[in-house]
Specification:
36% of the residues lie in helices and 27% in strands. The chain is α+β, with helices and mostly antiparallel strands and 271 residues long.
Amino acid sequence: MGNEGKIIKLNRLFEITTLLMNRDTITARELADRFDMSLRTIYRDIEDLSSAGVPVYMTRGSSGGISLLKDYTLNKTVISELEIESLFVALKTLEVTHYPEIDRILNKLGALFRNTRATDWVEIDFTYWGSLPDEKNKFTEIKRAVLQRRVINFSYVNTEGVGSNRYVEPLKLLYKGNAWYLVAYCRYRSEHRVFRISRIKNVQVTGKTFIQREISEAENERMEDFGKPLTRLKLRFQPEVLSRLYDDFDDVYIIKNADQTLDVETVIPED
């Protein structure tokens, strides 16, 4: 099961638990209809909850159904406080990407784990400094297109400052070197390309769907260096910028010279 499927199942398990905490009994058919799932999947969910230590049980008969032990609440006998905090961090990271239904999951977690410390001790924001207010909305639209396999249209400015209009088939979002990129098949260039998200403007998700194309070995190798020839650089810096160097390079690559200047050798794509 991929990450998307795991999140959907996690949301369903928490919602089932919440429903059971607020109702004496609920039938498997009601749950199946509510989540648009088969009875077999619901019974498997109940087994998973029971295996996780949630005291859920089933009764037969006309008034039977699925129930929880009276006065049950989720607490650290099922999941430790450290595990709860780790779960919140993971979900808050997904929240930044506006992953579907994460807000609802976080609200439910906060209600279920009432004794947990406040969850506002961490904030994760992937937008760059100086970005426009709609930057997060742009990210959301691209993410939606990736999940729904929909063609998107946008304006793109390359490293030479030349703008163009692109129709692409988005495959995945890539976070590398403190920046977000989109890996997509570009219909304008008729090949797979890597686009820097900050250079993408005026995103529109079209109604057209697509079937994912195979990425050739040559394309994959080219995209690994972002389609640019690799250049080996030897850089020299004044000592005043040492703290900035540690932000961008591992200390094993920073060589201090006798005159206090600093040398860094690195390989990066051109531009």
